[in-house]
Amino acid sequence: MEKVAILGSTGSIGVSTLDVLARHPSQYEIFALTANRSIDVLFDQVMAHAPRYAVLRDESSASQLRQRLKEAGSDTEVLEGEQGLCEVASQAETVMAAIVGAAGLMPTLAAVKAGGKVLLANKESLVMAGRLFMQAVEEHGATLLPIDSEHNAIFQCMPGIDRRGLGAQGVRRILLTGSGGPFRQRPLDSLAAVTPDEACAHPNWSMGRKISVDSATMMNKGLELIEACWLFHCPPQKIEVVVHPQSVIHSMVEYVDGSVLAQMGQPDMRTPIAHALAWPGRMESGVATLDLIMQARLDFEAPDEQRFPCLRLAREAAEAGGVASAVLNAANEVAVEAFLAESLPFTAIPRVLESVMECFENVEPTSLDDVKAADRLARERAAALIPEYKRD
Ligand code: NAD
Ligand code: MG
After folding, report:
1. pLDDT (tens digit, 9 = 90+) per residue, 40-62?
2. Which residues form the domain of 373?
3. Whether the CB of 318 sits within 6 Å of ligand 1
4. Are 209 and 260 found together in one domain?
5. Which of 84, 146, 185, 276 could be a cystine partner for 151, CB 3.0 to 4.6 Å?
6. Do residue 162 and residue 286 come from a single domain?
7. Edge to edge, what strands does the sheet with 171-178 contain?
8. Rounded distance from Cα 255 to ligand 1 centre (Å)
9. Which backbone phi and psi does 351 adopt, to 5 degrees?
10. Site to substitute for ligand 1 among 13, 105, 275, 340, most atoms within 8 A of C-beta
């Protein structure tokens, strides 16, 4: 039985992962489940799956869960904090890295350093520390499998990942598709007034709130562009973003002979999750069949950078290298949180990011401490800007 830890098991990806694993009980042992503060959901998950460990972010939530599990007769051990997360990540054979945001970096890296199979949903860890992260993957012989649907699609359309870059495999470019989110056609002058709930109502995918807002600004596609550069060893110029509103094609790879391979399927994360779990094999995921006759049409258009300035900012950060993308990611996390708390208008998100990016001195990080320092400073600067935009 393969021992699986799910970091962020109470989230959207975590729940989908449990759903897939539950379809194959004889193959996988659920070794650890973790959450930020959702004690109730984690309690139910632990009672249903009886993992060896459960981890909560803070001490008081952990002691509450410990007490409740004891009363319920469970023998799952409860750990806490980043240390607890890193401990379970390094002991499992397979780790689903599905914590949202920068908080996922250290636990995901702990999994990489243990040299096991790492299923990467937490794109932010590659955005923040791409070079150091990929060096660790290589040094420790970890197997890194992309869960982000686009990256999983690209991976499926290539013979493998080649460190020498795309050219070594005859790939001309990657076509990274994105739906354009809920505001693709909304009048530009109405965007300033959109609410968090409107931004989180994605037309095709059901996801956590942070990534849903990122999809609405198209920062998600920007973060994915950076993620793809690291995963597939390619420069940003080799990646073209294509808006495809139906989310049936999950991305494409174009070869030098003119062939374009696409991976298609329902917009359901259980497909990439099952693919990565079973890789190099295949297994049932519970995802419905794709009915192309019902689907009838697939549309494509160029992204509108005036409507989605975050996409341009991410491309600039990818081209700049160094800590630029860590800075962008940190400022984005702060701005999105402020938007979700109704302290920042939607259209001010890219303005905060641009201001933070403009006054940053870019350097090549030589250690995780450099990355963390850039992340911290960017957060401080973004937080200081929020009240200014609130008054607009
Ligand atoms: P979510 O908000 O639904 O879940 C996040 C999980 O992380 C929860 O279990 C939460 O308890 C935990 N968490 C949050 N903050 C934490 C912290 N500080 N410390 C420890 N744990 C913490 O998010 P999601 O939509 O499942 O996304 C998870 C990751 O997967 C993100 O990086 C996202 O970009 C990526 N991703 C998600 C989807 C999707 O369809 N949801 C698709 C592609 C990639
Ligand atoms: Mg994606």
Report:
1. 999 999 999 999 999 999 999 99
2. 321-389
3. no
4. yes
5. 146
6. yes
7. 239-243, 171-178, 249-255, 260-264
8. 33
9. -70, -40
10. 13
In this structure, are residues 171 and 255 in contact, taking their beta carbons and an 8 Å threshold? yes
- Angle, helices 12-22/270-278, rounded to nearest 10 degrees: 60
Same domain for 77 and 209, yes or no, is no
**In the chain, what percentage of residues exceed pLDDT 70?**
99
Specify whether 160 is located in the same domain as 141: no
Backbone angles phi, psi at 15, to 5 degrees: -65, -40
CATH code for the domain of 100: 3.40.50.720
Q: Virtual CA dihedral for 256, 257, 263, 264, nearest 10 degrees?
A: 130
- The reported pLDDT for the residue numbered 202 is 87
**CB contact at 8 A, 101 and 9:** no
β-bridge pairing 53-56 and 77-80: parallel
Strand order in the sheet with 77-80: 77-80, 53-56, 28-35, 2-7, 94-97, 117-120, 143-146
The string of pLDDT tens digits covering residues 300-332 is 999 998 999 999 999 999 999 999 999 999 999
CATH classification at residue 370: 1.10.1740.10
Q: Report, in angstroms and rounded to the nearest whole number, the Rg of the chain calculated over CA atoms.
A: 20
Residues 220 and 338 both lie in one domain: no
Last-in-domain residue among 119, 146, 173: 146
Share of the chain above pLDDT 90, in %: 96
Does ligand 1 come within 6 angstroms of the Cβ of 205?
yes
CA distance 33 to 51: 7
Could you tell me if residue 300 is inside a domain?
no
pLDDT, position 203: 87
Last residue of a domain, one of 117, 146, 175: 146
Nearest atom, ligand 1, residue 223 CA: 34
- Looking at all shown ligands, the one closest to residue 123's CA atom is 1
133 and 262 housed in the same domain: no
* Residue 309 domain-assigned (yes or no): no
What pLDDT, on a 0 to 100 scale, did the predictor assign at position 206? 87
Number of domains in the chain: 3
Indicate whether 162 and 218 sit together in one domain: yes
